[in-house]
User: Fold these one by one.
Assistant:
Number 1:
Amino acid sequence: MNVGDLQLGEMLTTLAGRGLGLDVGAARARVRTDLPSLAATLQSVYRYFPVEEGEGFFDVTATVRHARGLRRFVRPQIEFVVDGEVPFEPFPAATDLPLLEWGLNWCLAERCNTYLLLHAGVVERAGAAVILPALPGSGKSTLTAALTVSGFRLLSDEFGVVRLDDGLCLPMLRPVALKNASIEVIARLRPDANLGPTFPGTRKGDVAHLGPDAESVAQRHEPAMARLIVFPRYEAGAATALEPVPRGRAFAKLAVNSFNYELLGPAGFEAVGRLIARCDCYRLSYGDLAEAMATIKGLLNAP
Amino acid sequence: MRSALERHVTLLLSILVSPERAVVLTLDEWDLAVRAARGARLLGVIRARLDHARLLGSIPAEVRAQLDGAWSAAAYRRQMVLREMWAVANVLEPLGIPLVALKGAAYIAQGLRCADGRLPEDLDLMVPRNRLDEAERALVDAGWASEKTDPYDQRYYRAWSHELPPMRFAGHPIELDVHHAILPPLGRVRPDARALFESAVPIPGSRFRALSPADQVLHACAHLFQDSDCAGRLRDLVDIDALLREHSAAPGFWTALLARARLHRLGRSLWYALRYGRAWLNTFAPEGVAAEVARLRPPALSRAAMDGLVPRALLPQSPDEEPTFGTRLARFALFFRSMWLRMPPWLLAYHSIAKLVRSARRQPRAEVA
């Protein structure tokens, strides 16, 4: 049975008890909450994930709950709790899914140190993975989401998870967090896309989550070999321009943008080096999403 | 002392003490143990102990991944501590300032087994008090900067603390704490700083010296039972236990330990460490010194109070439950005790009022992105 098939009541019981287990591929998270609104949005964006009771071993156990004290009644806030600790300032109560997703990302980035963790979106088509490293304002999430609703498999929007022994990319399959105008762009591109509710006015502006599709979920334990690294750069009205990035430069950009490159020491150096050696690296400036997607498909010789 | 320990504590202690028991744990038990160990900052230590016992191959893969990840994080911090020591020595050694590495930095430089998997927080360094200003000027000239910008904090450290305000070199992940003593200069117990320097021992291959083995153990005991509120500090007790096991092999160690405890007036701290270490970690003191250790014993009232408070505060909190009222009370009582030991009553009153006034203008925790 999948998360989307549960009755809301069952969902709430699970979330308020041992927790809902989410196997996202490279990691397993267990989520607990007693907030009905979060139960409903979780059910929608994680609908294709199999239901797992919170038994066994998890990499992260996270709870989202009302913040304590008088703030419960005046402008209520919610907080993210992991193993009894509250690592961040509380969020406004209305932004429950953004807080949970943000908190889970933070935990996964801290803990999954047996992999090289790039800050990147990763999609795959016909066995070839494309890594889209995130630089501020790059439009990484928009491009990842657009490719995902256009026939690519989603591996991750946030983490390029690279296995150290064989260099394969593993999925860390979670909803794609879309911001501001991107939400409308994806909704127009694919009206039946599994978009969750829009959370207006978060710290990153308006945020909505694109839930992973059924096929991506079914293949969340299938690794893929990276063939292409594209550093996207979105600029309104800009013409599509593709230029190769020299490997040394690509190495530096990828390493700097990794969550744990330094921590892994020589293993991180080797992993980035092997990845770069195997991939073609480009910078893609774009103003038109359809052209950008066509360019990436062209680089893969995909229809 | 409360005898019934919570399940997460029992699991964590049993893995620390008898790693061979870890191979039969269920995944549910591992889940609880790993969460408790992470909270106690002992996950990397557990990994090191399983490794020493050659048991890593018998650990389930998903658990192993978390243990290995914690170990990598600890190895990285360890490397960064060594780099910081190198950088600091480059500045201070040419001035002829005696450098003594304290705690984690010393364990790392000495290659002690207890450094394996241990997550060092900062670099603790001790220089003689009459060279402190010179050392600070040199470090500031070389690029280190104080992290505490609040004038009250600056004044507090300089006037009443045994260390300078923490410093950091821009971009370095390791904070630098420059000490001139191991306990506050106005505190109830003032270990003999000159004796600490005089008996410090060279670290092979390092420009730093370490405290003598006995002083090193006593510093760890003082840090936990004289200068901290014990809250969530099981790792400090684990350090003491490991140091004792490591240093016990040297002939005359226990005699020296007891003599130095009397010299520095740290007998009580040592006694508490041995008491709770024996209860939870099988910390071992040889038969021959039992009578001498017993003489360090604090009065019955202190013992009873500490037995009521320390287990609640020091052992890790349940990762699934809120701290009980009793636990919060115990933590508060031990926090007050630590402040009481740290400074005379007039200073405690002054400091409390100053902090209270400042907390009214509390700055929020760091904003998340």
Number 2:
Amino acid sequence: MDVLHGLLHGFAIAIQPANLLWCFVGVLLGTIVGVLPGLGPPATIAMLLPLTFLMQPAGAMIMLAGIYYGAKYGGSTTSILLNVPGESASVVTCLDGYQMARKGRAGAALGIAAIASFVAGTVGVVGLMLVAPPLARFALAFSSPEYFGLMALGLAMVVLLAGRSLVKALLSMLVGLWLAGIGTDLFTSVPRFTFGQLELLSGLDFVVVAIGVFALGEVLANMEAAEEDRVLPVPKGLRNLLPTGQDLRDCRFAFVNGSLVGFVVGVLPGAGSTIASFISYGIEKAFSRRREQFGTGVIEGVAAPEGANNAETGGALVPLLTLGIPGSSTTAILLAALVLWGFKPGPLFLSDNPSLFWSLVASMYLGNVMLLVLNLPLVPLFAQVLRAPAFVLYPVIIGISMVGVYSTGTSLFDVGLLAGFGLLGYLMRKLDYPSAPLILGLVLGGAMERALRQSLMMSGGHLSILVTRPIAATMLCLALLLLAVPLFARLNAWRMQAMEEEK
Amino acid sequence: MKTTGIWVAALCALACAEASAFTPTRPVEVVVHTGPGGGSDLLARSVAAMMEKEKLLPVRMRVVNKTGGGGAVAAAYLAERKGDQNTIGFFTGVWLTNPLVSDKAKVTLRDLQPIARLVLEPALIAVKADSPYKTLKDFIAAAKQKPGELKQSGGSITSRDNVVRQLLQQETGARWAFISFPGGGERIAALLGGHVDLMVIEPEEAGQHIRAGNMRVLAQVTEKRLAGFPDVPTLKEAGFDVPVVPQVRGVVAPPGIPADEVAYWEEVFRKLTRSASWKKFLADNQFEDGYQNAADLTKFYDQFTSQMRGILKEAGIKVVR
């Protein structure tokens, strides 16, 4: 009853015209920021922070949170249309989303991304509303050994991201892991693989590598086929652009998977939405009946990660609001905003400020509806981009990529890196190395290494800490199982073949 | 008579400074070494808001995040801006400590133009509420009994967290592990989840967890007790005669800026630290007023650097300069 009462109270505040307006401003800004590669929610929220001092805290919080989850909606747009990940969490969306666009199904991909985001985003808010306090305790049970297990499980997904050759996928992943090692070591302050470059001391920006390898590599590879200057097919009419009933049925499991994985991973302060999207994509593929078609434009391959990165928002607010523990740079800046407005975030925040919490929750329900209404009509508009011929589209992609990368750190060095990784992406395509495992290695490498070394420091150097803690052990077992699956499949195929021959 | 003379001279100096007054003409870039939401970033943003409220600057301040290398990237960026009239930076003690252990840090705080020291952030030593250690003495005794088995969560090895641990270890001979976590949230989560035994935490961060009964404070890393924690002993009162290492934060400018510009910035920050907004900001965050002008700040560099050099050497960390 408390929940219902709180929620009604929250809606009463959120539905005030001013707050509705702030909610709309937030989700609109978020969508724009999400669509533009480079500029992310933390930088946007930080820039707008001074303006919020003149606002009511409830309205300000509603707006800033709107930017946060709105950006997750917009992030998929350029991933699907141009193979340029708009946000780090949308990298996985490139895999199937871009292939769908190349097959003339850009509209369906964009539509399902919006719908999955809406479903999972709403589930995330429900989770935040109902189970925040107990889940916060679960988040505390997670420490370095458990994170190591989670990251190992994520890395095991490589077998699912592999193309024809598992060996090439593993090699690609190892390069990703090495790239993750570049920068200043946290534990000893020793620079690694920086080659005397000051700019490399903070490590590689993941967005630079992802945009280079995915977007630039794709453009370079496509430019080779100079004679094939055909425009991508874009069907006419809104009805033909949006996902069909069959698409929605195909995504049933992806909605559930994305929502749950996104929310649970979001609750963990040391994980993040990129990892959530990779894991839900992996799960989706592992349990799919048409596993072999993933990577060629399967609609579930868009729905699962897009859902996951939106449900993550609700999850990430759990430790922030119930414990005052931020898990990402976006939640850190939200925490800062709360402090600057005069609140004391922490374990007592909910009981001290129920109306702020409930108005935020209510606004997130409204915001998700607004985003769906805002994004679906944009689908045909965005899909038209693909009508542009290659000589227009490719320079635009390269331009957007460079501006996006420059805007993240205002550093020309990063633009140079972008060009380098573009070439790497091109070479990998030519030599048939999958690029997703490289990105996976880069995303997980840093966190995984930290988790392992922290675990070993906790145990005084004994590896046993990784298997004596139940959550960590379970996840490591799952990872092993995942790695073993292709072996079994091969063994089985071999056995079948042998039986055939015997006959 | 003599004093009048000095007054006249001072007034003239002020007036002359006013006459040739430098004022920034376009938005001031404020360089910080943490990402959005980090300590320096938040201070810079709060200062920007206060400057506007108190009308101390004719232009806006724009925070620029140059992360990495424990401040090395941000310091190098400032050094590149030699003579730039519209750029300043916010430093922390890490900018002094990091170059001691990293030969890659080409630019040190000494290569930049000092402006002012602003705050000293005190710290608390905290354990989880159900921890068996009621006092710091309990913890130290337990650490002595099982050397290396107790754990502390904290930042990098050059952070204040580790410096406090090193000082206590040297003083008592006890040994415990130090586990680095990149984010402040993860450090607290590790303590509250029972994965580590102790942490050094800032008072404002700890306040809510203490009120909620999740955390207990054993001692404060301060010279005298903080207003918010009247019942918690300082390190000295708890029986540990170790130097108090505050986290220091202040302002620097690029090298090679003219003297009137240095004077301008000094004056702006002096006025800021006299304002009501600033007093409220200090009280809200339980910071100590650490104001020092440029001349005193230079002396502070020397004192802090030699203290840190000694601490790092004792801790067995390789000191490169």
